[in-house]
Amino acid sequence: MRLGDFNGNPSGDNRVWLNGLSGIVHIPNQHLGRYGKFLKMPYIITVHDLIRYFDLKGYGTYIHRPNSRDRFYLPRDYRGVTKATRVIAVSQATKRDLMYYLGIPEERISIVYEGIDHTLFRPSLRSNNFGYPYILFVGSEHPRKNLPTLIRAFGMLKQQRRFRHLRLVKVGRAGGTEADFRQQTNEIIDSLNLDGEVVFSEFISEEDLRACYSGAQCFVLPSLYEGFGFPPLEAMACGCPVITSDSSSLPEVVDGAAIKVSPEDVEGLAGALEKVLTDRELRESLITKGMNQAAKFSWEETAEKTLEVYKEVEKELL
Prior knowledge:
By secondary structure, the chain is an alpha/beta fold. Helices cover about 40% and strands about 15% of the residues. Residues about 1-10 have low confidence and may be disordered.
């Protein structure tokens, strides 16, 4: 299984779907918006995030600066989003971005949260075979994931002798070929003298991922931007305490079941990590709240809400 490189619909299926009601097309990913102009019928499009839009407009480097191919296709993708009969946003944060940056009227946007597979993501008694206590990060090393902040916070913890055996385990590939993200990560690790303290595991099975979540001291996602954010919910469902940033969609996804820290606050993140690692009562509270929160998100619920959108649009077009 390849982790950390996903930026589309969760099944990996980027086909255009006919919803089976009145011939309305459902485009499941904003990066297929470029095909909207070829459709002679109404269509719905799901937008997972506006990450590449921000890169395109120069609002920040969330993945990488646009190349010539990006500059050709990305504007067409977002024009396709604006022309959709209905836009499905996967979070309130994504809805706000659609309204503010693309000028899409609120009445044309429906929120349908994504889900997780609860048959897979649940507590596991299986050993992860690491042999040491660890903090877990799952995702790419794109700038938006803000891994350097976590590494710096981890480095602060390692200055305390009681955390001498603690490791930071990073699951997921570094990123695409557009930049050497791993080199950038290693430069930070070297500058903090953390060689051997950060463990990389790129390709693992779903069962191994479940074991990683279940065995971690805590899971951390300090992202600058997430359109939704699957890993915190997966970790919660596996009984792992969670720390996230307080940016974009993450506060609404984790709600009150995780510790939230400013993505730029290294000392704040280090302090949050220390609390979770040393306060048993806090850990147990986060685990209980996290499992309850994760239970609210399922693919069955996503499917039902999506069907409701189909029916609403069909009714509007009659």
